[in-house]
From TrEMBL, chain A:
Gene3D superfamilies: Vaccinia Virus protein VP39 (3.40.50.150). It comes from the Eukaryota. Belongs to the TRM6/GCD10 family. Keywords: Nucleus, tRNA processing. One of its GO terms (cellular component) is tRNA (m1A) methyltransferase complex. It comes from Biomphalaria glabrata (Bloodfluke planorb). InterPro entries: SAM-dependent_MTases_sf, TRM6. This is tRNA (adenine(58)-N(1))-methyltransferase non-catalytic subunit TRM6. It holds the Pfam family Gcd10p. It is found in: Nucleus.
From TrEMBL, chain B:
It is found in: Nucleus. It comes from Biomphalaria glabrata (Bloodfluke planorb). GO terms for molecular function: tRNA (adenine(58)-N1)-methyltransferase activity. Gene3D superfamilies: 3.10.330.20, Vaccinia Virus protein VP39 (3.40.50.150). Keywords: Methyltransferase, Nucleus, S-adenosyl-L-methionine, Transferase, tRNA processing. Signal peptide: none annotated. The gene is LOC106071159. Belongs to the class I-like SAM-binding methyltransferase superfamily. TRM61 family. Its main location: nucleus. This is tRNA (adenine(58)-N(1))-methyltransferase catalytic subunit TRMT61A. S-adenosyl-L-methionine binds at residues 112-115, 133, 161, 179. It catalyses: an adenosine in mRNA + S-adenosyl-L-methionine = an N(1)-methyladenosine in mRNA + S-adenosyl-L-homocysteine + H(+); adenosine(58) in tRNA + S-adenosyl-L-methionine = N(1)-methyladenosine(58) in tRNA + S-adenosyl-L-homocysteine + H(+). SUPFAM superfamilies: S-adenosyl-L-methionine-dependent methyltransferases (SSF53335). Catalytic subunit of tRNA (adenine-N(1)-)-methyltransferase, which catalyzes the formation of N(1)-methyladenine at position 58 (m1A58) in initiator methionyl-tRNA. The keyword Ribosomal protein does not apply.
Amino acid sequence: MPMANNIIADGDHVIFKRDGTCRVFQIKPDRQAYFEKVKFTVNDLIGQQFGSTFKVDRGNLVKLSETKVLELEQVASEPGADNRNLLDSESNQKMRLEDIQKMKSDGLSGEKIIEELVENSETFDSKTSFSQAKYLKKKKKKHLQMFTVLRPTARLVMEIFSKEPAKICFLRPDTVSQILNFSNVMYGSNVAVVETCQGLVLACVLERLGGHGKVIHIVPNTSDTLCRQVMNYFNLTKDQLDHFYSVPITCLKVETDGTQHKSLNINSSTEIPGDTLVSYSRTELPAIEMLPDRTDDVNEAEKSDIMTEEKEAEKKKREVKREEKQKRQEAAAALIQNKKLDSLIIACKYNPLPVVKKLIQFLPPSRCVVVYCQYIEPLVECYTWIKEQQVGCQLKFSETWCRDYQVLPNQTHPVINMSGTGGYLLTYTTVSKLS
Amino acid sequence: MSFKEYKSTVEYGDTVLLYIGYNNILPLIVKKGQTHQTKFGALPHDTLIGKQYGSKIHCPKGWIIILHPTPEFWTMCLPHRTQILYSTDISMIVFQLDLKPGSTVAEAGTGSGSLSHAIIRTILPKGHLYTFEFHKERYMKASEEFIQHQIGDYVTVTHRDVCGEGFQLTNLVDAVFLDLPRPWECIQSAKEAIKKEGGRLCSFSPCIEQVQKTCEELTKLGFTDITTMECLVRNINVQNATLQNITLEEQTAPSFTGDANAETDEFKSKKLKTENADVKTSKKSTDNYCFPAAVPALTMPGHTGFLTFASIYMH
């Protein structure tokens, strides 16, 4: 990859990362960011390299050199043996809150403050090396406002949601990773996705296509407010987004004559009723905001009667856009109806079985289907139906158990808290019916 | 074109998978004039030509399904030359290493090529995998397989012990994967292989002592965001389960003039059932509770290995 690719630019989404905390932020001149209780302007980030670490110094960003970063990570120690002589008392720390606040307003560095805190702590020296390290870690978190700016990746975006998994249907990195692998998504695949994970699954699939193939978001007819916010986080290029399509599930029609000929199916896709198209364009509105001026223009045009010509032009523009959308939708529907799909992924809050029943009719044999659900019961139904209908083989129903470890000299153990569930997965491969 | 992209029908030279039953899949290279013996009888290769992938093939004593190969299927049926990585860990590795089309990756050792296939699938066509194997036979077998599977263009297999001799790559890869007995010995070399703008590293080790040493070395060499995790798959089976309902109250003769109207129907239906049932079982006044049950497997692999991931930013 060329180095130019590694420079933070105006308009980019970036990830602020500090220990276990991740936040996504869009870089815009003079924008104020608020991360881990610190406020700062992001101007200084433009032109910097991804992977740089910064310190916040009174609202300004100071870039840290690599050696400096490492220094701060090191832990000093001349430990005590155990904690038999430690008493929990306010007098252990000689410095008072006012002292610390004064040091801060005097512009003393975070390192200096921590040094002072350690010096004025009666108990620090008699703490064990473990608790010394813990103490320093805690103080560092409070007084050293350091973070790294990273290019968003699927992995980092998952970290953002680790504290609020409900927003993405309780998907966990291990489940997302299995969805992507078991669906055999690769460069050039045509993938149909049913998801209500704010566009996370769509973005992950789009990333794995490498700018070839198609991702088709299959949406319910009634949904006006489908959110694909997460797709914005990935800084997808216009070129990549050209491979993204959206089709209401109601537009997909199965050939009823039974002949499996591969002729172009344009006729059936142009027979889409008018109201479907209207609702389609509505579902498109909250999607990726490629054209931010759109809604503003509409309002202004309505207000002013004088600018009728502009209004007309605007109307035409919208008409063209709508036609464009309709064409794209028809193209995607035709692709599905011509059985050109390579993978089907379902990860949503809809009842999966009816969706599975409808969509697998469009899959050619020997293709991968992955159904994810946060609950086990709907997948039990899917499992039973697929087995009975013999529409697939290598039907696999599973969940994953995933545990993090703390690895430190003489204190390695599993992390105390772990995720209890990452949802359930059903995977299988389509087969042609025995004739 | 086998693993590289989907094709619809079988041709000579293809690697096809014979699906005989659940978790029973055999790889087969389709060759003119040859015959394969399955448990359902002889299968002449020529009969497969022109057949659509995913279709059922009749054998003398049953039928099998021919499937298009995928890295996940390959992991299930590849010839084991070593202990291999399975799809749960593989998925996590590919995801946590931030792999996507265009990524370059270094892998040591190649082993049986289970992970390699999944990596190549994800990074092709512009990415590249540099994989290293110190065992000569395994190195040769893996090289052959990649060519056979038509993914040879995306991988360079090298016969070398990276622990002693290093990767000998500089500022080239986005990610490094280590599955070695002493991974800590080649982290310095891995760091040199990773692009200056930064990258990811993963080490897979079955023993915690290995993890301990690896993490120490990673910290020493300036790697950050070091995380260690364990991932296990719990397979679930769906069965029709039956539990017996027992009588909770002392039985009184069913009275149809009883006070609870809701119960009346229940009694009626029970009465009907009892009448229809065998006279001998008429004594049984309880029904069975039947339901579709999601049953986890009775035994499962409880350990595969620890996955340690780390980042190195600009270096």
